[in-house]
Amino acid sequence: MPIHRPPLPKLKDHRHRHSLSSLAEAADPQALVDALLLVLADRRDAEFVARCIVGEGPAHHRAASWALLVVAAEIAERLGCKPGPKTQAPDTVSVALRLPPGAARDDDTFPLAMPLAPLRAIVEPSRHVEALADALVDGPAHHALANAALVALFARILEKLDARLPNEAEPP
């Protein structure tokens, strides 16, 4: 006997409310480059990664990735994170540069590595961290790079927040 479920309320359909050109206009590439400079030391690397994120894939993916990254960068900047050279943490995962067969080269990764510390903060054991990392950097470059950049921005945010918290060993 089938279970009777009441019908779901009808939600407003937000698809196609905005034209593709308005999505493209909203995603200012320079704002993304500035956001990426919080996690990448080289402007050319930041410009390249930004082009990969907002220059590939469906318009709604490009706009969504742009918005999430720029908001995360805004939070990081408000916390006091500054652009500039960073040392790459040893606990990172590279984003693979997927090349067609026969076009392989020595440098087969993008210039952005995803730190694992934010993932380690939310899951145990390490095999789950590795599975999450694999999921985040898998797929088309625009997805993998946006995910890696967002996690890298979260790492900067978490580092800044940890530095602001009072030392637990000290009495209040």
Task: Compute the number of strand runs.
Answer: 2
Amino- and carboxy-terminal Cα gap = 61 Å
Class computed from helices, strands and strand pairing: mainly alpha
Radius of gyration: 19 Å
Strand order of the largest sheet: 1-2
Fraction of residues in H or I helices: 40-55%
Oligomer: single chain
What gross morphology would you assign? globular
Low-confidence stretches: none
Q: Give the overall pLDDT as a whole number.
A: 83
Largest β sheet strand count, sense and barrel closure: 2 strands, antiparallel
Number of helices: 7
Q: Secondary-structure element sequence?
A: HHHHEEHHH
Q: What portion of the residues fall into strands of 2 or more residues?
A: 5-15%
Report on the architecture of this protein:
The radius of gyration is 19 Å and the shape is globular. The chain has a two-stranded antiparallel sheet with strand order 1-2. 51% of the residues lie in helices and 7% in strands. The mean pLDDT is 83. With 172 residues, the chain is mainly alpha-helical.
